[in-house]
UniProtKB/TrEMBL annotation:
The gene is AQP7. It comes from Oreochromis niloticus (Nile tilapia). It catalyses: H2O(in) = H2O(out); glycerol(in) = glycerol(out). Belongs to the MIP/aquaporin (TC 1.A.8) family. The lineage of its organism: Eukaryota, Metazoa, Chordata, Craniata, Vertebrata. GO terms for molecular function: glycerol channel activity; urea transmembrane transporter activity; water channel activity. Keywords: Membrane, Transmembrane, Transmembrane helix, Transport. This is Aquaporin 7. It comes from the Eukaryota. InterPro entries: Aquaporin-like (IPR023271), MIP (IPR000425), MIP/Aquaporin (IPR050363). The chain crosses the membrane at residues 113-133, 164-188, 200-218, 251-271. One of its GO terms (cellular component) is basolateral plasma membrane.
Length: 308
């Protein structure tokens, strides 16, 4: 599969006899490069995002409030997009990868690689933040790792519903939040509409996640990302919180897994049907015909594929 990813350069182009040498690479396997970039971008995003939650929770309001978490995750997404955007597209979100496959912007055979990379990055990030805040967490909760209650700490790592939220309402909450994410991502990448200026895509995606957190976060913590939620949840189950992480909220754990891909497809599909498919062809306006969307397997490193 050609042009799957940019080479990881460890040298520079050198002029020799009028010819330009090819860049040197550590890894020549394109799939490995894409997987590593996706893992690292997810790791950066999750480490900084979870770190903002840990600081607010263990600081008991002294080091930030809910808005600090919104800002932390928004900026974390922007930084993660910079890390892997030119190589893997920096999806950092299983719902994004699944939606890109549905709309033929990513080959289905690439989906397991993306999901595995995102799960690995999220799991390692959860372990890292637990290590960094180990003493703060245990000082805050007195060494009693709980999922619910006044001193609950499992919410640092995974999302849980508010006490009033039913499974049905929570499912709709996650469908709607993820639909807004993918609808807006499609708009930001639509070259025939008002796309984000070249080079500014990570910042705009970060602002989008910030906006979703501010407007749609109180019900269940706006997971809007299945891999972001399940990997840290598994980590907490292994690290001392136990199986309560799967039982709380009437078995809430499956909702971010199932609802978010559905929401992603619905949101992207709505934008495509109502806006993208209604664009006039350039030939009708006297211009040249152009391809409306570049398949991700042909040009995975374009700015329109920088997502969360």
């Amino acid at each position: 599969m050609k042009d799957l990813a940019q080479s990881v350069e460890v040298g520079v182009f050198q002029q020799r006899g009028g010819k330009v040498t090819r860049p040197k690479v550590w890894l020549k396997n394109e799939l490995i490069r894409v997987g590593l970039a996706e893992s690292l971008s997810t790791y950066v995003m999750m480490s900084l995002g979870l770190g903002s939650v840990a600081q607010v929770v263990t600081g008991q309001g002294a080091f930030g409030q809910y808005l600090s978490i919104n800002l932390g995750f928004g900026l974390a997404v922007a930084m993660g997009s910079h890390v892997g955007g030119k190589i893997s597209g920096a999806h950092m979100n299983g719902a994004v990868s699944f939606t890109m496959c549905v709309f033929r912007r990513l080959p289905w055979k690439m989906l397991p690689l993306y999901i595995s990379a995102q799960l690995l990055g999220s799991f390692l990030a959860a372990g890292t933040i637990y290590a960094v805040y180990y003493e703060a967490i245990h000082d805050y909760c007195g060494g009693n790792l709980t999922v619910t209650g006044e001193k609950a700490t499992a919410g640092i790592f995974a999302t849980y519903p508010a006490p009033y939220l039913s499974l049905i309402a929570g499912f709709f909450d996650q469908v709607f939040g993820t639909a807004m994410l993918l609808l807006c991502l499609m708009a930001l990448s639509d070259q025939k509409n008002k796309p984000a200026p070249a080079g500014s895509e990570p910042a705009f995606v970060g602002f989008l996640v910030l906006l979703i957190g501010i407007s749609l976060g109180s019900n269940s913590g706006y997971a809007i990302n299945p891999t972001r939620d399940i990997a840290p949840r598994v980590f907490t189950a292994m690290a001392g919180w136990g199986t309560d992480v799967f039982r709380v909220g009437n078995g809430w754990w499956w909702v971010p897994l199932v609802a978010t891909p559905i929401g992603g497809v619905l949101g992207a599909g709505l934008y495509k049907a109502v806006v993208e498919l209604q664009h006039p062809h350039l030939s009708e306006a006297g211009g040249e015909m152009v391809e409306e969307a570049v398949p991700l397997d042909k040009e995975i490193n374009t700015s329109e594929n920088v997502c969360v």
